[in-house]
Structures are given as C-alpha cells and as structure tokens.
Amino acid sequence: MSGRERILGRVRRALADVPPDDTPYEQVVRRDYLREHGDRTVGQTVELLAENLADYRAVVHRCTEGELPSLIARLLTEREAGSVLVPPGLETGWLAGTRVTRVADRAESTPDDLDRVDSVVTACAVAIAETGTLVLDGGPDQGRRRISLVPDHHICVVRVPEQVVSSVPQALERLDPGRPLTWISGPSATSDIELDRVEGVHGPRTLEVVLVG
C-alpha cells in the first residue's frame, strides 16, 4: 500500500459517519468577520497606523509632497548611505535632493550585489492601521520583492490617507493575490526563548516610514 492510499483510507474512515445530506463545509463555516474594530475617522485611522508602526520599532516621519525629496535626502545623509536601490517606477522627484549613487533594480543582481547597497526607497501598495503593516505588491514603484528584504535600510513612502486602510480584510480587497505580496510589520526581527530581540536577521535592520499627505 502506498502512502497516498494509506492517507486516503484514513480520510474515508474519518468521514464514514458523516451523512450524505450533511451541510457542505463552505456553508458550515461562518465568515461574518468584523471588517474593522471600532469606529474611527480617516484622521484617527492614520494616527493608529503611525502608532502601531512605531510600536513595531519603525521610525515614522510625516511631510507634505513638496517636502518629501528633502526629507529622503536627509534620511539617507543621516544614515551615511553611499548608495540607494531604486525601483524602476519610483517617482524621479523623490530623490531629487540627494547625490547618493543610485542602483537600479536588475534581475541579474545577486544577493551579494544587493547586500552591498546601503539603502532602498520604495512606495507601497497599502498600509494597514490596525496591524501597523505595510504591503508591497511588486508594482513599478516598489520593485522586486528581494530589494526590500536584503539592504539593511528601507525607506517606505505611504500616501495618506488614500493608501491607508483600517483592517486586513479591507487591505485584501485592494490587493491582487496573484502578485508577489510582501507584508512588513516593522524592521526584521526575531527573539529567542528568553525573548532577547535581534534585529536585521532576515531583512532590513532599520525601517523608516514616511507618511506623505
């Protein structure tokens, strides 16, 4: 008897006492989940996002559209970044205020190539206030998934309030499941059994989020 036959036999035995007219599974499981928790204004939703991002140890900045280039330039300068990875569709004006060497998002780049880049600047697809999560979907202004996972410093620009939603269900409605989705809640971190936190284990050690509105 093969492993497949053994498993299917166990499934048949487990279902032996289920009546033929039993309610189908998709009707048994209730899916009337709450779409969001609480009743917030748009401004309160943005404030909740900023609070939860900071709680995850992301560094949150706020600026207007006109202030964005100078803010990004200052963040790269403070980081002493010599190079910055740039997705192909990133708005060119965002980096107008910096002289840092720009590195293109190329398919042939190796992990070592990406690891030598100091910083990366991306946009995002959507930001979730209740969980403090940024979601990137590989769009032109976000680039390949790996560019936000290898460099040690990630600057992510979020347009508020249009890219901010309250909850995960609301975010899922905006996202295409066929795209390469990257969900980011704070800088990369892990902890051992004694809860000693270590950052930068499998992604950027520093995450800076710019809320532009």
TrEMBL record:
<dbReference type="InterPro" id="IPR024185">
    <property type="entry name" value="FTHF_cligase-like_sf"/>
</dbReference>
<protein>
    <submittedName>
        <fullName>L-lactate dehydrogenase complex protein LldG</fullName>
    </submittedName>
</protein>
<dbReference type="InterPro" id="IPR003741">
    <property type="entry name" value="LUD_dom"/>
</dbReference>
<dbReference type="Pfam" id="PF02589">
    <property type="entry name" value="LUD_dom"/>
</dbReference>
<dbReference type="InterPro" id="IPR037171">
    <property type="entry name" value="NagB/RpiA_transferase-like"/>
</dbReference>
<feature type="domain" description="LUD">
    <location>
        <begin position="47"/>
        <end position="212"/>
    </location>
</feature>
